Amino acid sequence: MRGVWLARCVHTSTELFSFSYTKLGAVLFSPKARTPASWLSKMASSNSGDKSAAEAMDSKDDFIKVKEGSATILFPNSNEVFYNPVQELNRDLTVAVLNQFSKKYREEQEEKKKKQEAKRLKREAAQGVKNTDKSQETDKKVPGLRILEALSASGLRSVRYWKEVEGIDQILANDFSAAAVENIKRNLEYNGIDPSSEVIPNQGDAAMYMHMHHASNEEVPFNVVDLDPYGSAAPFLDSAVQCVADSGLLCVTCTDMAVLAGNHAEACYAKYGCIPLKAKYCHEAALRIILASIATHAARYKRYIVPIISCSIDFYIRVFVRVYTSAAEVKKTSSKMGMVYHCMGCGAFNIQVLLRIVSDVSLFCTFSPYSRRFKKETMPSSKQHKVPQFHRLANIVTRDSMLAAPFGLIGCTTLTLSKICKAT
Fold it and tell me: Is 203 helix (H, G, I), strand (E, B) or coil?
């Protein structure tokens, strides 16, 4: 065997939908260019007849006017605020997802209120008590969404969300830069949005703000948390999974595709705790690495995620996951993780799940280091209640295990590596 590479990522999930998308244009945009002025002027001259994100751009004194969707934003020529016109698809996709999530969330809340009302009436009927005042609680309007845009920059997303998404009660647009916050206020007033009650600008550190507004400490927590940083979202994941409400939506963008796709394996492990592979499926593996990182952060706080849609677009990753709280479901997180074995010779790969769920707890597996086989044994009925539903796969010590050990194989099975790929 020429060599086997190993990576850890999210295993398989029926809720995961991934696709790759490449957007070609006449004007190339460099992700390193944080300033929009030169790019916008070039795009305006080359795409004069194209109705896209920057279809209505014209310079006025110290500002450039950009129209995208239902929003019209003013950007200073002094290049103080970051704007990325290439991610118009990202914002369009998020608007579509939020509209569907708003409808789904409202339906879930109405169903929840009906169940609570039915339980209350049943309890009162059993006690022989009738209270007409409490029956009026079902007439209360279901509250709308409360959205946090942790890294707002120009406020373009917040303005588009408020104008294009139905069922929003409040949006908080946060940014660390004072110039960005002033630009957010200017854009809100320009679009006729009240900055005191509808879209609220805030200056502060995103991670610190989300830590201070923990979902369990908030009277009305954020139903949607949107992370769109410049680079990796890894520093904000731990606070984001705590800030979003139960059954809320977490939207994450990562623009460090080179790291996630395998060009810098050591950097990827430092940020996300996974080893990427340079293979044909590197973009899908990048999506699963992001999901694995989010799931790991959420599991620390007895929360688990359900992927809604995951996209690999141009140079960035965009994932939408719902976050739920359940100590029982968190135990299943490890069964969705696995090791990827990839042969550098023939390109064959195999996925080894870290843990597996056993439905019949009366059967358990033992491992003999001499026979290298798993044996099924029946446990006495008196001890069945002590058997965990998750069985840790034992580590097989072979001469090939030294190749896999540096990549995090300790504590989980490999099977014999020659059984995965017969390439010589």
Answer: strand
Q: Of the candidates 144, 296, 304, which has an alpha carbon nearest to the alpha carbon of residue 224?
A: 144
| Beta-carbon contacts of residue 1 (< 8 Å; ≥ 6 apart) | 343, 345, 400, 417, 418, 421, 422, 423, 424
Say whether 204 sits in a helix, a strand or coil: coil
- By mean pLDDT, which of 19-33, 68-82, 172-186, 304-318 is the weakest? 19-33
**What is the radius of gyration, based on Cα positions, of the chain?**
25
Instruction: Give 76's strand partners.
Output: 63
Torsional sign, CA 316, 180, 202, 158: negative
Residue 220: count other Cβ atoms within 10 Å of its Cβ: 10
For residue 395, what is the DSSP state? P
Q: How many CA atoms lie within 13 A of 56 on its CB side?
A: 9
CB-based burial label for 197 (10 Å; 0-12, 13-18, 19+): exposed
Q: In what order do the strands lie in the sheet with 316-325?
A: 18-21, 303-313, 316-325, 244-254, 222-227, 145-149, 168-175, 199-203
Q: 222 is written with which tokens?
A: 């954020």
Question: pLDDT tens digit string along 253-263?
Answer: 999 999 999 99
Confidence of residue 147 (pLDDT cuts 50, 70, 90): very high
pLDDT tier, 360 (very low <50, low <70, confident <90, very high otherwise): low
Is 257 within 8 Å of 286 (Cβ atoms)? yes
Residue whose tokens read 């086997």 = 4
Looking at residue 204, its pLDDT comes to 94
